[in-house]
């Protein structure tokens, strides 16, 4: 059964747990209902955004200039990724940009499809995104550590979905190519320790601000030819990317940056207008609650807490991954996903991520209500 | 060179002709700047549309209920396609739905990719949309009339892009499948003669209302299993479709239907709130002007004018295709696209549509300014 069609029903408590199977970032909604919400309101008159074209002089001709501007402003504020000298591309979520990167990096005239690999545990969507059309250009080849060869595309997700680990490429061949999926490299999830400057870096509004339904991601790409090919992918696949969605994303990203700039100007306290501070505080509370529940239960374990100096917030902080990678230490439990389902906690099995059955992934970014029910149930499992 | 990256520059007269190479439906902008525009304005607060999910009980879980409602209302108003008993699916433009239909109709376990065919001249994007990922599921096989075999997917575009002809399937095997691309089956382009009820019918906001930049298309699908597979394609490819874009499309489609309902209620005259009447009048003027220019020049020809009784407007009208399929009758001109480019008219060659070099496709839905320059230049070519 699909991860997205699990029969979840709204407003019925036993089923609210289904939400934790997906990383639906509804946690952020409370922030956007706060004082900053007003400035993020989008108004589009009936006659706007009618043309296919956004910026005909740009190699990504469907990229709204206002969206590109806000992407550059936000990275400059946070310092998590270099933008100087990079091409900005927009995609219908970062899933589309991931496929665009495969398309751009694969050799169209090769005898065999290029192998796509990632270190286990890897994001469960990478294999189907690579293979669902049975493309002759690329083929999923599993764990990067088990790969033997020189030609490959290695996907590095850091912080990693599902386990939150900080990662670097494990393969080092000159003819190999890397895609860096940095969806979670934002201050609410992890200390920002470096301004990254990889060849292809993918981001998404979903995980940055919580606007998953807008379906907007972006890529920072160093090489012009690769950027052109990626843009070509979006052109073929969907004749570009919705302008309305881009305007929405620009509004939301702009509100985040404005929140910090205005706060500095006003020297005011509180974090109601500071997305990353607000969200980091909430995430840290949730991780405390989860670790307490795990300790109370006594049969589970989590990855060790990791701390570092955050160059954005200028303090030493622990990481608060968007997912909990929960392992069961009880010998009799062989299939943790099933075991938790019996306890009305719906998660995604480690097998989907190239790992074993004794581990599951759980969303840490769902609503307060869903998260509260989850930790309470977890604490009582013996 | 890509059809979308032709180096077109804004506001420079010699280059304005580049627009006619694409079917960018900017003609409609004047309508949306009129009295109806106000009611089509979209407002989205910062906290809305955050979740991935739109309607968890629907097989197309990312379909906004308000968008589905407006799709059904509009078809009920126009009478061009059956909606009763059909599943509505949303896509990032109808290009994505076309690929979703190929994915749903192909057999994943087949030895060889299924052949995708369409009668010549066919829409120039069908071959690259089918083949750009070198899929093992389906493969472009050209002209339907030249196809020999029982297993195929036939694409029927009616009215046809590029030549405006009304089409039916030419292949009749029991194991063959059809996709009906009805992007242009709206009253501004052609008389609505039947309420169509094919298995898979594709539509797009671009050609219906002119909102190409919103990137929203929809499919009406009879079979539940096919609809599920098509929905699965959008899930894999882009994790659904932008909610903001769907809300925009819903607003625009709703304004069109409201325009007719309010007009009837007020018994008012004029067509400023009646999209199809307004657009049909403009299209008819343009076709008159084009036929006059062709006659003045003396070296070109166009498909014959076709008329029929329109069940929507309840009168007999001629068709006004969104593209002119212009043929050159002058013996010395072998490559019409190049010949017209020398005359500063940028078009798309017949070769892109599976036809010959002596014919080109020209957009009839561009701005008044671009269209005016075009017909004036055309009339003077001898």
TrEMBL record, chains A, B:
<dbReference type="GO" id="GO:0016846">
    <property type="term" value="F:carbon-sulfur lyase activity"/>
</dbReference>
<dbReference type="InterPro" id="IPR037029">
    <property type="entry name" value="Alliinase_N_sf"/>
</dbReference>
<comment type="similarity">
    <text>Belongs to the alliinase family.</text>
</comment>
<dbReference type="GO" id="GO:0008483">
    <property type="term" value="F:transaminase activity"/>
</dbReference>
<keyword id="KW-0032">Aminotransferase</keyword>
<dbReference type="InterPro" id="IPR015422">
    <property type="entry name" value="PyrdxlP-dep_Trfase_small"/>
</dbReference>
<feature type="domain" description="Alliinase C-terminal">
    <location>
        <begin position="21"/>
        <end position="381"/>
    </location>
</feature>
<dbReference type="Pfam" id="PF04864">
    <property type="entry name" value="Alliinase_C"/>
</dbReference>
<protein>
    <submittedName>
        <fullName>Tryptophan aminotransferase related 2</fullName>
    </submittedName>
</protein>
<dbReference type="InterPro" id="IPR015424">
    <property type="entry name" value="PyrdxlP-dep_Trfase"/>
</dbReference>
<dbReference type="InterPro" id="IPR006948">
    <property type="entry name" value="Alliinase_C"/>
</dbReference>
<dbReference type="InterPro" id="IPR015421">
    <property type="entry name" value="PyrdxlP-dep_Trfase_major"/>
</dbReference>
<keyword id="KW-0808">Transferase</keyword>
<keyword id="KW-0663">Pyridoxal phosphate</keyword>
<dbReference type="InterPro" id="IPR050478">
    <property type="entry name" value="Ethylene_sulfur-biosynth"/>
</dbReference>
